[in-house]
Amino acid sequence: MAEYRAEVVIWMLSGTLSLVMMLVWMAQAQAAPGGQIRGYDAAGFATYFLSTWLVSQLLVVWVAWELDFEIRQGTLSAKLLRPLDPMWTHYASHVAERLVRIAPMLVLVTAFALLSGARFTTEWWAYPAALGLAALGFTARFLYEYAIGLLAFWTESSTSFQELAWLVYAALGGMFAPLDFYPAWVQAVAVWTPFPYMLGLPAQLLAGKAGPEDALRGALVMLGWLVVFWFLRLAVWRAGLKKYGAVGA
Amino acid sequence: MTRYLRLLRIFTGATLSAQLEYRANFVGALLASLGEVGVALLGLGIVFGQPGITSVGGWSFREALLVTGFFMLTEGVISVFIQPNMSKIADAIRTGSMDFTLLKPIDAQFGVSARHLNVLRAPDLLIGLGLIAYAASGLSVTAGGVLGAALLYASAVVIVYCIWLALSTTAFWFVKTQNVAELFNGVFGAARFPVSAFPLPVRAFLTFVVPVAFITTVPAQAMTGELAWSVALASPVVAAALFVGTRLFWLRAVGSYTSASS
Fold first, then answer.
1. Which chain A residues are closer than 8 Å to B25 by Cβ?
2. Which backbone phi and psi does A41 adopt, to 5 degrees?
3. How many of the other CB atoms lie within 10 Å of CB of A210?
4. Using CA atoms, how far apart are residues A72 and B67, in angstroms rounded to an integer?
């Protein structure tokens, strides 16, 4: 992965949605009477959205595209001969990319923070807590995107499903605004999904707007969802392999 | 000229019949279009959903929706007309099939720009036009405003085409250009909001460095009749300058091309 250092920086910069939303909200807060919206001033928005950007960088998953390619081109067949589920190769390469990503990411976040006036929390425990939640969130996202990618066994539109899944993740995760800005009924739905805990919650932790008990509750919910996604992935994988054998034979 | 029009018709017919063979892909393209419009509308909807917010950067909801409409329309223009062609330039250079394009007795830039079409993303165009029509129905729009918007949007399309072509032409020197296009998409994402919704330095960047402002905000302003004459004139000038610039860049790139094997 270290070979792709230049690309990694470009990929990081191309995920601009949270940065665009940050700039819009900052301008809105400056124009609002009292200089703030729902308790967020311009610097508060900068902190929240930069945190979201940071966390979303750790949650990037592209496995659905790779599976789509492998299934369509048939390169999956060779991998099936190995005595290890191909999932682990993908998982390892995603984790490795994270390690390459971290250094340029910190440089960019520092630069953006200086430009926008963002202030991250000074509570030390928030950082390991956010990192832990991001790790859980990444694994959950990896598993459900893997299941979506496996839809390529049946349909040619699996990557489009992945784009729709991204939309739900971005919306309910809080990439457009902090979750408490959403209509009440959307919030009521969102708390039952994993998305607020994988993106919004770690961002709120970094911004100093969530406490240790929130982190703990989020971690428990995420663990529950991990179990669900684990078996979902396994079920789709087993069903898909039967189908794949039928085509290849 | 008539020869180019005839070629355009042949190209269109050929890609149409090639694409309509894969009907299942239509579902996927439709999902992708819905995703795009979902992102655009959610971003706007949540901002305007806050109590006390009635405008973003001085634009009312309807007016901002007009910008979103132009954004979706441009997404459509990119996915239907521009991206399918431009993404193949790098491949053609890498595999050497660019030789065939250059040998043909037509202008090579026309050849690489007009050959392909992704009709499956046509819903984007319809969604964009629909949003524009819906937003305009709640505003007082004059016939002159619509005409002005159409003319300025033509400049906008030229600007988008030129930026994509310039980025793709770098493939003559660098093997991979997919990532650069990705970067443009990132910046272009800012065009879903009126440019005045951004802080001042960013506004300047979106106007003068990457002229995103001319693509969606300016046509929308023309439609609502709030466009200053200086900006209205600047848009075609920028488009023309970019066109000449990318044309020269393209000719230079082709001049330095030595085929894949040498």
1. 156-157
2. -95, -175
3. 22
4. 38
Query: 3-class SS at A41?
Result: strand
Question: What residues of chain A have any CB closer than 8 angstroms to a CB in chain B?
Answer: 7, 10-11, 13-17, 20-21, 23-28, 30, 32-33, 37-38, 155-157, 159-161, 163-164, 166-167, 170-171, 176-177, 181-183
Which residues have a Cβ under 8 Å from the Cβ of B22 and sit 6 or more positions away?
A: A156
- Chain A CB contacts of B182 under 8 Å are 10-11, 14
Residue A243: which of A178, A126, A147, A155 has the closest Cα?
A155
Q: Per the structure block, which two tokens stand in for A133?
A: 């939640």
Degrees, nearest 5: CA angle B159-B209-B186: 75
Question: Per residue of chain A (249 residues), what is the pLDDT tens digit?
Answer: 667 777 788 788 778 889 999 999 999 999 888 888 989 999 999 999 999 999 999 999 999 999 999 988 888 888 888 889 999 999 999 999 999 999 999 999 999 999 999 999 999 999 999 999 999 999 999 999 999 999 999 888 888 888 889 999 999 999 999 999 999 999 999 999 999 999 999 999 999 999 999 999 999 999 999 999 999 999 999 999 888 865 554
The distance of B144 to chain A (nearest Cα, Å) reads 31
Alpha-carbon torsion angle A212, A214, A216, A219, nearest 10 = -130
Contacts of B38 in chain A (CB under 8 A): 167, 171
CA–CA separation, B227 and B186 (whole Å): 26
Q: pTM value? A: 0.91
A156/A152 Cα distance (integer angstroms): 6
Task: Please classify residue B2 by burial: count the beta carbons closer than 10 Å to its beta carbon, then call 0-12 exposed, 13-18 middle and 19+ buried.
Answer: exposed
Answer positive or negative: Cα dihedral of B186, B191, B193, B194. positive
Q: CB distance A20–B190 less than 8 Å? A: yes
A16 vs B31, B46, B187: nearest CB: B187
Residues of B in contact with A156 (CB under 8 A): 22, 24-25, 28
| Closest CA of chain A from B45, distance in Å | 10
CB contact under 8 A, B47 and A166: no
